[in-house]
Amino acid sequence: MNQVDVLIVVDAEGALASGDLGANVYLIDSNKHVGSGNEGQQELMTVCKDGQVINWRITGVSPSSDVVITQYTGQMINDKVCVPIPVTSVDGPYWQGRVEAQGTKGNQQYSVVVSIDGRAMTFDPYLVVS
After folding, report:
1. One-letter-per-residue 3-state SS of 66-101
2. Which of 13, 42, 101, 128 could be cross-linked to 22 through a Cys-Cys bond (beta carbons 3.0 to 4.6 Å apart)?
3. What is the total count of domains within the chain?
4. Residue 15 maps to which CATH number?
5. How do 119-123 and 85-87 pair as beta strands?
6. Is the pLDDT of residue 1 over 70?
7. How would residue 123 be classed by pLDDT, with cut points 50, 70 and 90?
8. Host domain of residue 117
């Protein structure tokens, strides 16, 4: 599998009301049986290999929610293991990054900065480089 797709689903109303995105975000990826963990919660652990491409898409639970990814930060970025960039396609915008492990193995935490109706909020999932 050369690509891994990650879907981020946000309960925007819940996040704005509580001020807590982590309790109102749900992640899944396309790895299925490969071994990703914590699906359906904020700390998804996406298993990946050196050279794989990861695509992140975001959507709101409510179709009227304005949710967009604005930035990635954290260990994954600082260590340059994966540095996502925004992509515009006919199917809608998403973010894409190539895993460049440089000998790194194990967990790489990262933060996703999300704009919800203009308010920046973050949550912190993981890549698991195998």
Report:
1. CEEEEEEECHHHHCCCCCCEEECCCCCCEEEEECCC
2. 42
3. 1
4. 2.60.40.3910
5. unpaired
6. no
7. very high
8. 3-129
